[in-house]
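Researcher: Structure prediction, please.
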Amino acid sequence: MTIRSTGSHYGAIAQGFHWLTVILVLGAYITSEGGSEAKIYSAAFDTTRRIHETFGLAVLAVVVLRLLWRLADRTPAPTEAPVWMQRVAKAAHILLYVLLFAVPLSAVFGTWFQGHPVTPLGFDFAAPMAPSRGLGGTSIEAHELLGNAILWLAGIHAAAALLHHFVLHDSVLRRMLPGGRT
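Model: Predicted structure follows.
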């Protein structure tokens, strides 16, 4: 496997960013407690909240690095598929990137607007603005809605990759798997 992508296959770094993003998003979702503000910021949930916030900020950092790498690396050519399928895939990828930014940022700003610091493991980032309870609540509601949306879209994305592999028998899935030469 090469470090850089080729015309037909994603390289090791692009694949690493992809699968690390998957793991971090799942970790953030699994550690999301939900519930009232009093519950989330209670001592009983402090460690879980910190782990969740760590996953969320890691998603944001990895997506920034992933996009920077994408500027330096090539993208494999699209596989043979109907134009409508290529457009849907492109739209889904764009929406996934938007959500990968929107989900953690809505949490950060919602937390700050509610008057709490963002507290990943080992750090506390105090709010740089005055609290606005209404805006904080709206941002947290958006975070929860967008968090569910990204899981649905990622699930559809994964199902489409499996459809390509097992039904259409093309290289869409193999080009993102280690050793999956096309």
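Model: DSSP finds five helices and no strands in the chain.
Researcher: Thanks, that helps.
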